[in-house]
Amino acid sequence: MTAVDVSAVAKSYGKVDVLSDISTHFPQGSFTSLLGPSGSGKTTLLRIIAGFVIPDRGTVTIGGRDVTSVPVWDRNIGMVFQSYALFPHMSVADNVAFGLARRGIKGEAARREVERALEMVRLPGFGTRKPKQLSGGQQQRVALARAIVTRPSVLLLDEPLSALDRRLRQEMQVELVRIQRESGLTTIFVTHDQEEALTLSDKVAILDRGRIVQIGEPTEVYERPANRFAAEFLGDTNFLQGTVEAEGTVSAHGQRIASAIALPPAGHSVTLAVRPEKIEIRDASGDGGHGTQPPANQLSAVILASIYSGTAITYEAEAAGGLRLKIFAQNRDARLRSPGEPVTLSWSADHTVPLAG
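and the corresponding structure tokens:
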């Protein structure tokens, strides 16, 4: 297993800064997702680690070795592309063995390694087929087998699942995690899909305009976003603008909002984030209460709209002062709340997250 380190890496194309002095550490054996919108720099960072792009400044270290100027073929990496990049005229076995041949491994030794790789991606016996005889998910597995057959130190994945339909994508997510855990490969995965990043990763790095704005475990970046961009990019969020009144309290839209997380000093403006699924919706009468420990935040509100999606219901509600909140409720009963219905909204102070910037 091999760690990867990126130190003060920058890259520009003309006057456009694609990466701005990025420094980060990818621990050995970890699965890290680079997450961000188009143009955030995530693919450029991956290609710099791979060696396809040379940074304007900064260094890339793999296993303690400075590889910043080392060519792709001498970095001992495996890479899977979005397009699979399989050779259509070659058999599955020959596609998988392509990297071995370039390393001078042929004959029986190559055959054994190909069989091992196909077993790992659960495609034993598929060696004689051509890519056109395979489903999209099977082609993706072949591309993955080709990447790992050479026993690389690092596995780089550039949006490899984006061409698959939802069901196959979910299946391949499970397989990717299994293969990564079994192989112990340090894996860096580029995606723009938030759910995918949270599902697969040990760590998630969120990029915005060439900078890493937050990196951490999936629960950390989701539950405690560092700033508004991170909170917004990782899913639906209610943003509340307010002023700190005292320790643990904020005045927002005329409402007193409690937070268990450290706030700026009293008098400072602050943006609070509250995830829609953290808010509980109850009858205005308080039925279905919280026993002896009511939540710190309770607001009277009126339902504005509801969207039924089978397993869940999305509500929009308005509290006094024009404070509008989105709420995700699991579909536990058949009753759908109607516009104009008075309700009580509540959530824990732990789920009121002040944002930097």
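(Above: one complete record from the training split.) The chain has two domains: 4-228, 238-355.
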